[in-house]
Amino acid sequence: MRDELSQDIFGTFIPEPSHEDPVRRAQIQMKRPLPKRFYEAVGVEARDDGYSITLDGKPVKTPAKNLLTLPTREAAELVVAEWAGQGEFIDPATMPITKLANTAIDAVANSLDEVFDEIVRFAGTDLLCYRADGPRELIDRQSARWDAVLTWAATAHGARFILVEGVMHQEQPKEAVAAYAAALQRYRDPFQISCLNVVTTLTGSAVLALAFAEGAFDLDEVWSLAHLDEDWTIEHWGSDAEAEARREARYGEFASAASLFSALQSAD
Fold it and tell me: Which GO terms describe its biological process (predicted)?
């Protein structure tokens, strides 16, 4: 039973087992009967290839039956905290870092080129490059905050993206996309790319994901920059409880990916 635990709880990661909306996904998971917690102690076992998670001394396996092993002890401790924090029942909705680690091991490790290329494609249609054609207040706000990120990309990596007014697609210079891809190469491993893929997807900006990875902008600034348009709309038209819950859930996934990414940078 214990070897089957991750499969039973977390399911298959490609495609996503329930729903792309994190709020709806949580609602679906809540309807499923949760397994009872059967273990007492959660630990970390050092191995040649990293740090494996153990329950009562026995290794935890991923849905694909690989060992749940993380590259650094600090990263492993994040997963330990999720397993140790479970109460009478084991709730995968409260274990986003474990899910992300499983995805990195079972899925991204086998399709690293595809996931890497997906992030690069985001750079070709990056959120920060598409600017409003009105009103003036929004145009000025985008320029005041987004231009700094694009200037950083150009200065730090020679990735000079062009701006587009409105929503019509415009091809970015091949040189800019190639420069971005060269900068992203530094993070070309299953765990780091998995984290940056989450950040890219949730922000709509590959440039912001790279800026976060390199410490040019911190977590909350990246989130704020990604939601500049949405925040402007809320200021003028208000919000609703469902939208706020959805945004909060997305931020939780975003922050979890960022936490794991930061833990991967630690030296053991």
Answer: proton-transporting ATP synthase complex assembly
E strand residue ranges, the chain = 42-47, 50-55, 58-59, 69-70, 130-131, 164-165
List the one residue out of 179, 157, 191 whose CA is nearest residue 265. 191
Amino acid code (one letter) for 9: I
Instruction: Tell me the two tokens of residue 81.
Output: 């905290």
| pTM of the shown model | 0.90
Which among 132, 131, 130, 182 has a CA at the least distance from the CA of 153?
Answer: 182
pLDDT tens digits along 34-59: 999 999 999 999 999 999 999 999 99
Local structure of 220: helix, strand or coil: helix
Q: Other C-beta atoms within 10 Å of 243: how many? A: 13
| Antiparallel, parallel or unpaired: β 164-165 and 130-131 | parallel
What's the rounded Cα separation, in Å, for the pair 133 and 124? 20
Nearest CA to 217 among 128, 133, 139, 140? 128
Residues 108, 105: Cα–Cα separation, whole Å: 6
Q: Which residues contact 228 (CB under 8 A, 6 or more apart)?
A: 141, 142, 145, 146
In whole angstroms, how far apart are CA 98 and each of 13, 35, 80, 256? 12, 16, 9, 10
Confidence grade of residue 239 (pLDDT, cut at 50, 70, 90): very high
The three-state secondary structure class of 37 is coil
Instruction: Report the candidate in 243, 102, 113 with the shortest Cα–Cα distance to residue 189.
Output: 113
Structure tokens at 179: 């420069």
